[in-house]
Amino acid sequence: MVGTARSAGTPALAFEFLALGFIQGLECRDPWRSRGAGNLEAPHDAAGTPIFQRIKDFLVAQIAAGHWKEGDVIPSEQALVKQFGVSRMTVNRAVRELTAEAVLTRRQGSGTFVAPQKVQATLLEIRSIADEIRARGHTHRSTLQRLDQMPAHELLAKGFEVTAGHILFHSIIVHYENGVPIQVEDRWVNPQVVPDYLAQDFTRVTPSEYLLATAPLQAATYSLEALAAPRDIADMLAMDARQPCLVLRRRTRSAGKVASLVTMWHPGHRYQFAGSVTTGAHA
């Protein structure tokens, strides 16, 4: 059994890292300095890994382990220099690269913080946002802001391929991931396709889940753009109105009719879309 000890003045995080380095078989207790080189800093550790990369790995490991959470300030560059016995330039490179990779975020005059994690959704598959959140191992909840019916104005009627004044159902719902708002869903629904829409409890089932179960999808079209959020949307997403939103608009058809038109607002600093396409060999 291997034991380690630390002096009363050694920071806990430094001790954890040095112990990890020892367990991994590094040749010296301080992997950031070359042996016999005095105060000269080696560009790589004993395993051949660039020193700045090892600092990056350590910072990321602290975040992944939950020691530093979203919004937490990390130690200053000067503190990291002292902790690891390296130059300011080396620490700065590690922090700068993690900032560029959106792992950290810098605030002038305040320090460096753990950046918000961007959640990811697919553009090529229509599924419930609740399923996406649960697939990430997180908790979904929603709040209902509006659920009523209104006559369609001319532009909305055109989207539904009906005449102006046609009655449509309307819902506005805010979706949360681990308590953080990540989507405002502003949806219009055709009563001719989904007559019982207003009778649903959308805090227990999402509109997407209900519509996919009751109005089988025939076709869908969508568009994606970045827009500044209106004040009411920004308030529901708990964000600054000057920050951009990723706005997904989608129209779905079922039973030969337009079933739903939905606009989904996502805070750009907390959300991203991704997808992939696989084609056959003879496509």
UniProtKB/TrEMBL annotation:
Pfam families: GntR, UTRA
GO biological process, one term: negative regulation of DNA-templated transcription
InterPro entries on file: Bact_HTH_transcr_reg, Chorismate_lyase_/UTRA_dom_sf, His_ut_repres, Tscrpt_reg_HTH_GntR, UTRA, WH-like_DNA-bd_sf, WH_DNA-bd_sf
GO MF, one annotated term: DNA binding
Record keywords, A-Z: DNA-binding, Transcription, Transcription regulation
Domain HTH gntR-type: residue ranges: 49-117
Protein name, entry field: Histidine utilization repressor
Source species of the chain: Pseudoduganella lutea
